[in-house]
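To the wet lab folks,

You asked to see what we're planning to order before we commit. Fair enough. Below is the target structure as tokens, and below that is the sequence we designed to fit it. If anything looks off to you, flag it before the synthesis order goes out.
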């Protein structure tokens, strides 16, 4: 039986479809990729948009970046099933291009609703595209791994910006930074 949170999250997904959010992206996409994981998670990880594998399977972070995310989680002794993973933009942009500001803006209210339902203690933004909505004007190179509290609706949220796991695939020196930043999250929570 589905719990109340799952039912509400499915309604948010239906609302995205019914409200025809980003019809150009929707037309090109195979799946709407809402999110995956524990709806009662203390930690929500937010990327920018689904890639090709994610689009095909309808699940976030299952490609190469997802494999590195799994390594990050394992290094912190966290199971993927203990966190909730989503993206700001829920459809894959063509050719994996960066999501446009208008696309992020269109999906933002639905992401806020997801967070209202899950009520995490910590939101980990993966990459600058998800970070800039929570921490506008900040630069990822200056604030990565540093927690900051923000007010989002009725909730006070701890935001921890991290580099996107894909960045570590292109720049090996970021691997250790990402793992160290991620491991510090548990210390922050405690």
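Sequence we intend to order:
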């Amino acid at each position: 039986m589905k719990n109340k949170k799952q039912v509400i999250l499915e309604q948010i997904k239906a609302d995205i479809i019914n409200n025809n959010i980003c019809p150009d992206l929707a037309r090109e996409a195979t799946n709407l990729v809402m999110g995956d994981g524990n709806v009662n998670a203390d930690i929500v990880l937010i990327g920018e948009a689904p890639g090709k594998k994610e689009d095909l399977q309808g699940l976030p972070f299952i490609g190469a970046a997802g494999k590195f995310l799994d390594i990050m989680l394992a290094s912190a002794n966290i199971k993927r099933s203990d966190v909730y993973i989503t993206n700001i933009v829920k459809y894959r942009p063509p050719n994996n291009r960066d999501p446009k500001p208008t696309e992020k803006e269109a999906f933002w209210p639905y992401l806020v609703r997801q967070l209202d339902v899950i009520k995490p203690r910590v939101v980990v933004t993966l990459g600058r595209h998800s970070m800039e909505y929570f921490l506008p004007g900040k630069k990822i190179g200056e604030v990565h791994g540093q927690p900051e509290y923000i007010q989002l609706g009725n909730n006070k949220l701890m935001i921890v910006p991290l580099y996107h796991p894909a960045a570590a695939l292109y720049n090996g020196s970021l691997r250790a930074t990402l793992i160290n930043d991620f491991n510090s999250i548990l210390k922050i929570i405690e």
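Structural context that might help your review: Residues 4-189 form a domain with the Uracil-DNA Glycosylase, subunit E fold (CATH 3.40.470.10). The chain has one domain: 4-189.

Thanks,
Computational group
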